[in-house]
């Protein structure tokens, strides 16, 4: 029996977290198995910098929809591991522009086959679902961008349906 599944809507955030944790464990185990010293938390920022670099810190935060402090934390870890480098923008000295370092560039060929496998496995699992999880997630994200969960709960508490 899966008590969290039985709680349905009440446990939505917990189930999403559990699903995320399951993925992160699998990705981390895959990196270790193939001898790639890379943290799953770095992936989205690393890929964005690899594909769009040089890119400013705020642009990373905006494009990924995550907080500036969260981006700074990951960037600091990537710089510490010599996977990225940052330099002040020539046009705007307040901006830090991020690019992959030589070590980061060298790591890409090790990471890409693993990422390709992740994509294939995810596509295969989603093809077996009644509803496409990515579409459902996008729909929820749009609704929450339009109006926060907090605001919706406050309305429900003040004006129960």
From TrEMBL:
The keyword Cell inner membrane does not apply. Residues 9-159 form the HTH marR-type domain. The keyword Transcription applies. Keywords: DNA-binding, Transcription, Transcription regulation. PROSITE patterns: HTH_MARR_2. One of its GO terms (molecular function) is DNA binding. This is DNA-binding MarR family transcriptional regulator.
């Amino acid at each position: 029996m899966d008590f969290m599944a039985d709680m349905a809507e009440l446990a939505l955030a917990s189930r999403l977290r559990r699903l995320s944790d399951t993925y992160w464990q699998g990705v981390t185990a895959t990196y270790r198995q193939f001898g790639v010293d890379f943290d799953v938390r770095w992936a989205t920022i690393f890929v964005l910098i690899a594909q769009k670099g040089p890119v400013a810190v705020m642009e990373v935060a905006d494009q990924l929809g995550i907080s500036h402090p969260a981006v700074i934390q990951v960037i600091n870890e990537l710089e510490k591991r010599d996977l990225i480098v940052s330099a002040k923008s020539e046009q705007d000295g307040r901006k830090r522009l991020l690019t992959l370092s030589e070590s980061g560039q060298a790591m890409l060929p090790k990471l890409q086959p693993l990422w390709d496998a992740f994509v294939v496995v995810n596509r295969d699992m989603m093809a077996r679902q009644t509803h496409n999880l990515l579409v459902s997630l996008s729909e929820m994200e749009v609704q929450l961008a339009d109006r926060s969960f907090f605001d919706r709960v406050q309305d429900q508490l003040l004006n129960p349906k």
